[in-house]
Amino acid sequence: MPDTRIHFQYDLLNPKGELSTIAETTLVFVDCESGKPCLIPSNFKTKIEPYFS
User: Residue 19: CB partners within 8 Å, gap ≥ 6?
Assistant: First the structure.
């Protein structure tokens, strides 16, 4: 289970179902006051946990 970052990798298909793009996104949880990475909020972590087991 991720702690401060979630990395997504995905393929995008065109309307014909052909591979159009391979992409990735990294979400980083940041403390608003310090500007430093912080742990995933517990309410969000509970919702995404089933996808990481």
Answer: 11, 12, 13
